[in-house]
Amino acid sequence: MRSETWLCAAALSLILATPAFAQDASPRLLPSAAAAYGEYQSEVSTIQSAPLKSSNELDKALNTFGAQNPDQLSSGWIAYSAMVAAQDKDFAAAVRDIDGYYGRERVMTGMRNDVGYARTLKGGEKALQSALAVNSKDAGRISSAAAFVKDQAYKLQDVTWGKSRLKDAGGVAGKLKVNAKTVKPVADAAQKLFAGPDLNVVLASAQGQGQASSVWDKISVFTASAPAAALNTLVPGAVGSSSALKVQPKRESTANRIVTLAAFHVLEADATNKDDVKAAMKDKPTFDCIDWSQLQLQACVSAAYTRADLSFCLAEHAIGDAGACFSSVAK
Description:
The chain is mainly alpha-helical. It is 64% helix and 0% strand. It has one domain.
């Protein structure tokens, strides 16, 4: 289920506003990876925009959310989180200072050996808080989408196509397992959106104080105007200390990795140390969590008797459990 409408419109706005960016033949690693997460959030927008109307729509939604490649989605999410963290000016300045003082190789070696080092730099904790606050809003909308679909699951028990019996539940589960092993092509519109030079403005605005909703809830504004005009509805700025979030002890490594990746993004290290950046995008706790949610989904689907049961599996595991993998970083 590809919800490309708003992505196409947003990318078109970027093209019209800044035609030169389309000539960039070497996309940076983090934006390219984060585009997959952006497309995932576009699918969340679609699934919560209207009830599922047919078995075909249900099947597409199940494959969209239940067959996400765990490596691609987890890398995309942490890349996006790091790019948000990299917007902190104090942190970015501190990263550039140590790079200028010690040299690129010593800095990269230090961060490679101690994934928590970047977080100790000036602005490091504040940069992390920005990413965690944005993630909390993003995860909240995923949770809302899961609740919306679960409510439909109960209603489908009284709808003809919802009550229809599944002919091969085990086959459906097996197909999901196979499809999840494949890296999904990211829509060109999403890639262009994340390659645009105005993306930093979007990222800075995503963490605005007093902004209760996720930036992805504002995306419809992009369809009617250029990015700069759309962002007038958002409030840029860092997260206040009163809203500080605590990292779950089991996810400290993930939090550290977000800030380290943010430092790499500030230094544009994907041009000089590509392997280090690629390695830093691999967050095992997030990968394992998404992978486990899919195992739970496949077990649920295998036991499903009707399509209403299948929609419950979609809500509970494909959307709900996977979304919890992002929200479990902080409390």
